[in-house]
Write a structure and sequence with these properties.
By secondary structure, the protein is mainly α. The protein folds into four domains: 211 residues, no CATH class; 110 residues; 147 residues, no CATH class; 42 residues, no CATH class. It has 22 helices and eight strands. The strands form four sheets. Strands 1-2 form a two-stranded antiparallel sheet.
């Protein structure tokens, strides 16, 4: 009993530490300064939806800087504090270095020539305002699809400057509830209404008092006014105020960013466990992975509640869901095989897909209002989820294939038994991927028929989904027909990563078809990098087996080789005379030659 408790102690401690890591930012913190958290929970109408001021600030800062915090001297300001600085102390805010200008030609054009600096303040950017305006005018004369990288960066910086100025004046933010349900909320200038009621006047005055108190460093006054503001807004629109507060708390919890850290931690622990300390590290890593996957699940459920939509509505949410599905499938594989490979690929996939989601979050509000054709929860909850699970399974099979190739070429750990086990994992996951990709594609055709009046239109996105189905079917047929064994399906599964990435990202950036989301420079670059790594893995997996560190050896192949039954050979005769080849020694030699020629094959055949 004591031994059992001792074995359980490490995973329990690891799970408790991981849970505490997620809970810490949610627990109330002692507040000795301005209660910016409470201010960030105030609701507003912006870009077609109701959301907290904290979300507006985070989205704007991400779009401008690529970060959710700002460095100010030796401190870091969160997005809501930066928002308050921008409104109440514009002179101080204009000196904060938040504009990322990493194109060298654009820096030189605007006289921002410091090679070691990538982020600049609003004041620094405005020193080249006239030149920026001139470059914008020149760029506008060029069709968007023909613009150079420099010209795209010019327009991006111009949009960021406009966003900065608009947010600072709160011209596009509507924080004052309407008098009647369904009516447009009002800005602080109240230009939409010539006769605001008493409650609306009080809320507008409350915002003015909050900004004045923050500007004068009156902490108590600011906190008191913010508390009164929250009560007044909640009295006018209770459901919107409650959901906005929940969204602000969800933002502060930062579940997905923290999940990235723990997914990476689990991956490293498992990698080390294959070298030493395998039992304790495996048990601790399993416990942490279960906690982080649970937190990942809670984060997706929270987004469903906040947006009122199914889990997949855009590229960002698809990355979250694909990572969740891959981690779940990895846990399922580990349940059946208990080799550590399922845990490893589940943790690595969770880390990589959340990193992709992090990069996509800088493009704008991740819970923005959907296009009209997507505004159907039934099909979002069927077609999109099913086909996204197909993406997740195809990626997981490709990751297992990459693991097969790396272990076989770089280590001696790919024994025939492990080779066979990994091949079985890939095969099972590909079966799952084929089913979900096929069903998801059919459901998409039904949705297209109802939305656009045609089941299939050879749209690039539709073609990409079809290619995934066909490629997974090709892998299965290659295995069933004996054309590919363990190594073959591993290499084919890695190629499936390229095909799935093209369908997931590539066709969305073509600018063609009904599913086009627009070209994204950073996404295109990383897509090319990813494809290059997969092609390198395919080339590595195609090396002759004699170059693999886990290459075939006679003593390793007894469990996996295709032995030829020891059948007696008929003696060759001519005119009733036994041929010399039928002697006992010759027959034994023939048997040996046949056996060696068949057994010297790849591991896991």
């Amino acid at each position: 009993m004591n031994d059992r408790l001792r074995k359980l102690a490490l995973p329990i401690i690891a799970a408790l530490l991981a849970t505490a890591y997620f809970i810490t930012p949610i627990v109330a913190r002692p507040n000795t300064g301005p209660d910016t958290d409470a201010f960030g929970e105030l609701p507003a109408s912006h870009a077609g939806r109701y959301l907290p001021l904290d979300s507006i600030a985070r989205t704007a800062l991400l779009s401008i800087s690529g970060r959710q915090t700002v460095r100010s001297g030796g401190d870091r300001l969160d997005a809501t504090t930066w928002f308050l600085e921008l409104i109440a102390r514009p002179d101080a805010a204009s000196e904060l270095e938040i504009f990322r200008v990493d194109h060298p030609e654009l820096r030189a054009t605007l006289a921002l020539s410091n090679d070691s600096q990538r982020r600049f303040s609003f004041s620094q950017v405005m020193q080249g305002r006239e030149e920026l305006q001139r470059q914008v005018q020149l760029t506008q004369m060029v069709p968007s699809e023909d613009r150079s990288l420099f010209q795209r960066r010019v327009m991006q910086l111009s949009d960021q400057v406009t966003l900065y100025q608009t947010l600072g004046s709160m011209l596009d933010v509507h924080p004052i509830p309407s008098a009647q349900p369904g009516q447009e909320w009002m800005t602080l200038s109240m230009r939409q209404s010539s006769a605001p009621n008493a409650a609306q006047k009080a809320i507008a005055a409350g915002y003015a008092a909050a900004f004045e108190a923050y500007q004068s460093h009156d902490i108590r006054g600011f906190n008191r006014v913010v508390a009164d503001l929250r009560a007044a807004v909640a009295a006018e629109s209770p459901p919107i105020a409650r959901r906005a507060a929940d969204e602000a708390r969800f933002n502060r919890a930062n579940v997905f960013q923290r999940s990235i850290v723990l997914y990476l931690t689990v991956s490293l622990m498992l990698a080390v466990s294959w070298l030493r300390w395998r039992p304790p590290l495996m048990s601790a890593a399993t416990a942490i992975l279960l906690v982080v996957w649970t937190a990942h699940t809670i984060g997706i459920i929270a987004r469903i509640y906040l947006s009122g939509r199914p889990p997949v509505t855009n590229l960002y949410s698809s990355a979250l869901f694909i990572g969740w599905g891959m981690a779940l499938l990895g846990l399922g594989v580990e349940y059946f095989y208990r080799s550590g490979s399922g845990l490893f690929v589940g943790a690595v996939s969770g880390f990589l897909t959340l990193m992709v989601a992090r990069g996509l979050s800088s493009s704008g509000d991740t819970m923005a209002v959907l296009q009209a054709v997507l505004d159907t929860n039934f099909w979002l909850a069927t077609h999109v989820i099913v086909i996204t699970l197909g993406y997740a399974a195809t990626y997981l099979a490709g990751l297992l294939g990459a693991l097969f190739i790396i272990r076989g070429t770089a280590t001696k750990s790919l024994s025939p038994q492990e080779s066979k086990r990994l091949a079985q994992m890939i095969y099972g996951i590909v079966c799952f991927a084929t089913l979900f990709s096929f069903v998801g594609t059919i459901l998409g055709g039904i949705w297209a028929d109802q939305s656009w009046g045609r089941f299939w239109g050879w749209d690039p996105k539709e073609n990409g989904a079809l290619i995934i189905v066909l490629w997974n079917a090709l892998i299965l047929h290659a295995r069933w027909g004996g054309m590919a064994r363990a190594r073959g399906i591993a290499v084919l599964a890695v190629a499936g990563n390229i095909i799935t990435s093209w369908s997931w990202f590539g066709v969305n950036m073509l600018g063609r078809g009904l599913h086009s989301y627009g070209f994204i420079d950073s996404a295109a670059f990383w897509l090319i990098v990813f494809v290059a790594t997969q092609l390198a893995l395919i080339a590595l997996g195609s090396w002759p087996l004699r170059l693999w560190r886990s290459g075939p050896a006679p003593h390793d192949l007894t469990d996996n080789s295709r032995k030829v039954p020891q059948r007696p050979l008929r003696a060759a005769t001519r005119n009733g005379i036994v041929s010399p080849l039928s002697s006992d020694s010759s027959i034994s030699s023939l048997h040996s030659a046949r056996y060696v020629s068949v057994t010297q094959s790849e591991p896991g055949s």
